Amino acid sequence: IMGMPADIANATNRVGVALHSVVATLGFRREGVEVASPDALSIVAITVAGGLTGALIASFLPNLYLKPVLLGVMVGMALIILVRPSVVVPPPGTPVAKLKDKPSAWIGLFAAGLYGGFVHAGVGFLLIGAIAGTLRYDLVRTNAFKMLCVLAFTFAALAGFIWRGQVSWVPGLVLAIGMMVGAHYSVKVAFSVSPMVLKWFLFLMTLVVSAIALLS
Q: I need a surface site. Which of 8, 81, 108, 188 has the fewest CB within 10 A?
C-alpha cells in the first residue's frame, strides 16, 4: 500500500514481528503456559539456524521470488488444514513425541525457520505444522512454542537486515505498536476458544493471506 520495495518492506516488517513476539511470549508465561521441555532448546536452535539462513537468502535474492514463495506456502497450508486437520490439531490426549524420535520434525522446524527468515508472513502456520503436526503438542502450547521460536529467529534475522541497511524504522515502529496490542489480546483469545475454533480461524487466515498475495 505504501509503495515500499519488497525487500525493504520485508525487512521493516521484522521490527513489528520482533516486538510482537516479545509481548506474546511474556503473555503466554503470565497465563502459565510452560514451554520448558527437554527439547525446548533444540527446537529453538533449529529454527534460529533456519531463520539466519533464510534472512541471508532474502537479503540478497531478487524481489520477484518473495511473492511466489509466500503464495505457495499459504495455499499449501490451507489445503493441509482442510484435507488433514489432524496435522495441526492433535486429538485430545495425544502423547507428545520426542524430537530425537522424529527426524521429520528437524526438517520441518528448519524449513519453518528458513521460510521465516526469508519472508516471515505466514511462518506461524508452518511452525504449527512442525510443532503440532510432528511433535504433537496441543494448539495452546504449540502457540507458546511458536512465539518463542519466532522471538529467537526474528531478532537474528533483524540483525542481518539492519546490517544490510534495509530497515525503515518509522513505519516499522508504528507497525510494532499495532502488533504488540494484537499480541496482548490474541494470547487471551487463545485461552477462551476451543481448538476447533482455532483450527478454522487458522484456515480462514491462510485464505485471506493467500488472497492478498494473489491480488497485490
A: 188
